[in-house]
Structures are given as C-alpha cells and as structure tokens.
Amino acid sequence: MDDQNKNLILATVLSFLVILVWFVFFPPEEPVVDPNAPAVSATETAQPTAPAPPAIAGANGEPTPPERPAADVPRIDIDTPALSGSISLQGGRIDRLALKRYRETLDPASPIVELLSPVGGDDAYYALFGWAPGAGLNYEDVPGANTPWTQTGGTSLSPGAPIMLEWTSPAGLTFERQISIDEDYLFTIDQSVTNTGSAAQRLAPYGTVARHGEPQDLSNFFILHEGVVRMSDGELQELDYDDLPDLDLVQREAARADVIDVAQDGWIGFTDKYWMTTLIPEAGTPFTSVAKYVDGADIYQTEARLPTLEVAPGETVQTRMQLFAGAKEWETIRAYEEDGIDGFIDSIDWGWFFFLTKPIFAVLHWLNALIGNMGWAIIGLTLLIKAVLFPLAYKSYVSMAKMKELQPEMEKLKEKAGDDRQKLQQGMMELYKKNKVNPASGCLPILLQIPIFFSLYKVIFVTLELRHAPWLGWIRDLSAPDPSSILNLFGLLPWGTPEVGSIFFIFSLGVLPILLGISMWLQQKLNPAPADPTQAMIFAWMPWVFMFMLGSFASGLVLYWIANNTITFTQQYLIMRSQGYKPDVFGNIRKSFARKTGDEKS
C-alpha cells in the first residue's frame, strides 16, 4: 500500500467519523422550575443594584389569584406587517403574538407561526414589565403581573401608532406606559412614574420574559442551542433548558439563578431554532441580567432589572426598555445591531466555527439576493469556495499526476527492496524528493472540506433563510431532506414515503442522494482501482455508503456536496490532462465491472 493511498484512506476515515458524530442526539433531562423571586421587604434598606421584581407566582412563594378568563380580560390588538396579536390589560402583558410571514409547514393553508401565548393555555410564553418596590413600598403599590391597567391613548398597536396605559397605586404613585413598535419585531416600552405623595419613594423598573415549561417543539439536536441567550458587556452566554436545574441556589432570589451585573451593554431572553424573545435595556445603561427558576414550578424566566430610582414628591422619572419578539432574520437582526444593540447578530447560533459560518452565510445571503434562488446560491457558493481553494487543489492534482508517472519506478523499487520495508521507504522518499512530489498533497484538500462541510451544515440547519426555501421542481425546502423516494419510484407508485426519522427512511433514497453517490463514484473512476483487494473494496463501497448516510441530510447540504464533487471531477480531469496524464474514466469503469464479474465467476 503506497503512502498516497494510506493518506486517502485516513482522510476517508476522518470524514466518516465527523459525519457519524453529527448524527448523535443528546436528549435533555426534564427540569423542574419555578419563577418565584422575593421582593425587597418594607423594612429593607434600598440597595444600589436593582431589587428583585414582584414574583410572577406571588410574593414569597404565595400563589397568585387565578388570571381572569381570557374572554373577560380587555385586550389591545397588535397589527404590523410582520406581527399580529394582542396585549392583555391584566398586567400589561405582551402575550399573544404570531408571525405573519411564516407558516408552520409548506402548505400555504397551514397556520402562521405562533410565538407568544397567554397564561391558561399550553406553552404559556409572554413578556411582562413593571416596577419592583423599594423600602417603604408594598407589592400593592407597584404594577405587577395582575395589575389592571387602563388604556388612555391609541386604539391598537401598529408602526407609528403607539398605545398608552395608566395605573395609579394606593401609595399615590401614577404609572404610565407607552408601547410602540416598528415595522419588524422591535417593541419599545417607555415607562414613567409620578410621585403625587409627600414622601420620596424608591423603586426599580424591570422586564421579564416567562416561559411555562419547555417548548414542545424543541429540536434536541446537539449542534443547536435553544434556551437562554444573553450578551453581557460583549460576552455571549448560552444556557440550555436542562442547564437551569444545575444553577446555584441564590438566597436573595429564593431560587436557582444565574445573576450577572452588566455595566454598560447587553440583552437577555429565550431563543428557539428560528424565533427569539429578548429584553434589551438602553445602550449604556447598567442592569442586572437574571436567568432563573424556583424548585416546584415549571416556569423558566429571564429578567433585565434596571437600577433603583428615587422619585421625590411631585417628580416624574422615566425609563425605557426594548423587546425583540420575532423571527431571527439575519438582515433584520444585523440592522438592529447597527442601530446600537451590541452583539445582536450573535443571537443566531453560529457555533464553534463562527469564523467560517458567519462569512459563509454572508456570502450565501448575498448570492441569494443576486440570483433570487437559494439553491442556485448554494451552487454559486460552491464555485466560490472551489475558486478560493483552487491553488491548493492545483498543486494537489499536479502532484497526483506526477505520482501516476512515477508508478513504474515505484514498482521497480518494490521489486528491489523485496521484504525490506525500511529500504523501500527510503527509496520512495528519495524518489519523491528528486521529482518534487508530495505524497500527502492529495489528502489536504479532502481534509479541508471537513470544516467547510460542517460549517455549511450548521448554516443550513440554523438559519431562517434556508427554512422553506425552494430550489427547483420537487425540492421545495432546502432545509429538509429530499422528499422524493426510490421506494415509490419517485412518485410513480401510489403510496407515500416513510416519515423522516423512521428506520425505513434510511432506505428511502431521493434523487439528490442518488446523484451524490453517482458523483462520488465517477470521481473515483479518474484513477484505476487500487491493486490491494482491501483498498479496492473500501473505495468501491465508499460512494454508496455516503449516499445512504447523507440521504437524510438537508437537501441544501446534499446539493452542495454534489456540486463540489462535480467541480472537483472537472478540475482534476483538466489539471491531470494538462500534466500529460490522461485519466481513462470509461476504461476504469469497464475494469471495475470486469473485476466484479470475475470475482463472481470465481
């Protein structure tokens, strides 16, 4: 077995290992959570940092009065080009929100995606804003989860048409809240408090995003983060749902919590695969970032607590916080970052290879805007990647061509060396050095494809722009496997295809996986089969094993691999011919079939 074949087999084994690892799933444990957080007691001296807000589940763990039936709760409609929903006047909660631009499935009649939902139904998920009481104030003196707000301005919430809410507490504090929204997914919550009493009061504004239980549609895939995501003074942190039960117990919170004091810029919230709900204090404002749960309830919670404010008699103080609630569209999130939300583009899960995934997606997005089709953009991206790697590929294929020319001399060396392997190795190294041939050069381009392949897989898996993106014909969703199947002759037979994830789906090869196997097989035929029977068998099976392994991968990724193989075949063929070596593709195919026929006869 010569060194070149050893390196090729090594590269193949490494590629197999990487791809096999990607199939591994890590199901999360079922956590038990609760949102309880103690308030600052009436006798407590106000702290420089923000006190904990009134707990959603009630002060000091006491149960809250049940929420009024949904039909009895006054609501304010939300209507924008991107969102529809409503705000509950009970607590002023933003708790009904749907994404107009996105449907649950490819069926145009399927429901639009629902992001937020009110308490009382499945998967309650909402945003709440209020004030935490300082010394001298009680929970009844500040607005909380069940405060009955009065609408004083606006009819419905839409871009350029904010709404106004008002509530006066028993302590003589008048709270006002203005909620506005832009054309996309950014709410702005301006809160003010006026002290009409005779004594100064201290209190702290906060925002909360609460989620009752884990989402039912969790991907549970190890390369994707779903859960808490936050930025704290330039440092990104991600906490999975199953990480929260392992947090330390914080006495001041009376809960397991992760508390970070942010000095200047940051945000915190929950991220799903394609959607996100995030609290964003004003840039340059210090705040306390909290991710927590309390044992005994099944509610996850994130909080952004602003510093404690002192309101003198007759004085009015104001504060502002923003809420992103919507789709993780790359262009939209990047625009928000450019407008001052620090590091917001990192709310998209770029992964460990962010230095590759970010530029790969940026180029893919640009090509899609230029071409108008994400499938052709993937093929265009493949061309660009191959162009960047061409100098390396050129050296590799030139070296491979020279290796073919040296085959007769290598055979002579083997005859001379006999069983003396050390002498054979020394002779081969001298031969390589004399002819300026690097036997490992053919392996390097293959190895470089591994991180590129993984990065593109990550991009296709996590970015919203690939979701439900069509290419041509039967490929209507590049983020999903090829829906065609050889089991029903690609739609000619009157039965459906196995469901994704079933054991039969492995054998339900679509058109793209079959084309992938053929492209790999043809690429092999640029060179004669190895003389060693073991090597020959490995190389013969490799394309078809990959065909089955990648058959359940996203169509966009399989399309990339087919394009990559096709371009590689063309490059290698032309470069080897330019070096005087003419690959006999059809001759190698005939020999391959002849060898198999001969094996069967023997």
TrEMBL record:
GO molecular function list: membrane insertase activity
TM helices/strands, residue ranges: 7-26, 374-394, 443-464, 500-522, 543-563
GO cellular component, one term: plasma membrane
Ranges annotated as biased composition (Low complexity): 42-59
Record-level GO BP terms: protein insertion into membrane; protein transport
Domain Membrane insertase YidC/Oxa/ALB C-terminal: 374-577
Region of interest called Disordered, as start-end residue ranges on this chain: 37-69
Keyword field: Cell membrane, Chaperone, Membrane, Protein transport, Transmembrane, Transmembrane helix, Transport
Subcellular location: Cell inner membrane; Cell membrane
Lipid bilayer topology: Multi-pass membrane protein
Residue ranges constituting the Membrane insertase YidC N-terminal domain according to the UniProt record: 75-362
Main location, first listed in the record: membrane
PANTHER family: CYTOCHROME C OXIDASE ASSEMBLY PROTEIN COX18, MITOCHONDRIAL, OXA1
Subunit structure: Interacts with the Sec translocase complex via SecD. Specifically interacts with transmembrane segments of nascent integral membrane proteins during membrane integration.
Family: Belongs to the OXA1/ALB3/YidC family. Type 1 subfamily.
Described purpose of this protein according to its UniProt entry: Required for the insertion and/or proper folding and/or complex formation of integral membrane proteins into the membrane. Involved in integration of membrane proteins that insert both dependently and independently of the Sec translocase complex, as well as at least some lipoproteins. Aids folding of multispanning membrane proteins.
Protein name: Membrane protein insertase YidC
Organism of derivation: Palleronia pontilimi
